[in-house]
Amino acid sequence: MRGRTWLGAALVLGAQLRALWLAAAVEVHTAKEVVAVNGTNQRLKCTFSSSSPVSQQLSVSWNFQPEDLSSHEPVFRYYLREPYKPSSGRFKERVTWDGNIERNDVSIIIWNLQPSDNGTFTCQVINWPDVYGTIGEVRLRVVQKVSFSEIHFLAVAIGSASALMIIVVTAVIVCRQHRRRARDKRTEVADTEL
């Protein structure tokens, strides 16, 4: 009987510790996929939420995993309130800090995108004492030109419908004015005959 009591207490304690760990974790939020045109610049947005206030020891790590799954490459670091650009690698001189720690924003900008930048970027935030949490992932696709998306189609459809409506309203107004002038002429002719 005593063994069951200990087992039950251990299970309850384990569940409470797990809930406490999840409550103290850092949550990282990113777009899942970003499509950008070759040669342009792209902001990779990463925000976070933490159960603790932003600490002086907050650290941010951006890493890159190419599509060919070769080794991870560091992209950018932020630690002790200072951004650190990479000193070597494909992103040297091509990445800039664009975050605002007070707004829980740890975003970066990649300059002059190239097809070799296709892959997955990860954003990890550690905000002491919240050292556990999710890692944000952004899949970047660099294309030669923007494809005709649903948004473009919707914009063309709305623009066409608006133009058609303007043409119809203009035609109705012109027809009414033409009828009014014709009626006024008939009235003038009838008045002169009397």
Would you kindly provide a written description of the structure presented here, covering whatever features stand out?
It is elongated and about 105 Å long. It starts with a helix and ends with a helix. The chain is built from two helices and eleven strands. With 194 residues, it is α+β, with helices and mostly antiparallel strands. It folds into two domains: 25-143, Immunoglobulins (Immunoglobulin-like, Sandwich), CATH 2.60.40.10; 148-194. The longest helix is centred in the last third of the chain and has 44 residues, at 150-193. Helix content is 34%, strand content 29%. Strands 2-11-10-5-6-7 form a six-stranded mixed beta sheet, with no helix packed on it. It has helices spanning 2-23, 150-193; strands at residues 27-30, 33-37, 42-44, 46-49, 59-66, 73-79, 82-84, 95-97, 108-110, 119-126, 136-143.
What is the strand arrangement across the widest sheet?
2-11-10-5-6-7
CATH-defined architecture of the largest domain: Sandwich
- Structural class estimated from helices and strands: alpha+beta
Give the helix level as a range of percent: 25-40%
On the 0 to 100 scale, the average pLDDT is 85
* 3D shape: elongated
Q: How many helical elements?
A: 2
> What is the CATH fold-level name of the largest domain?
Immunoglobulin-like
Poorly predicted residue ranges: 9-23
Strand content: 25-35%
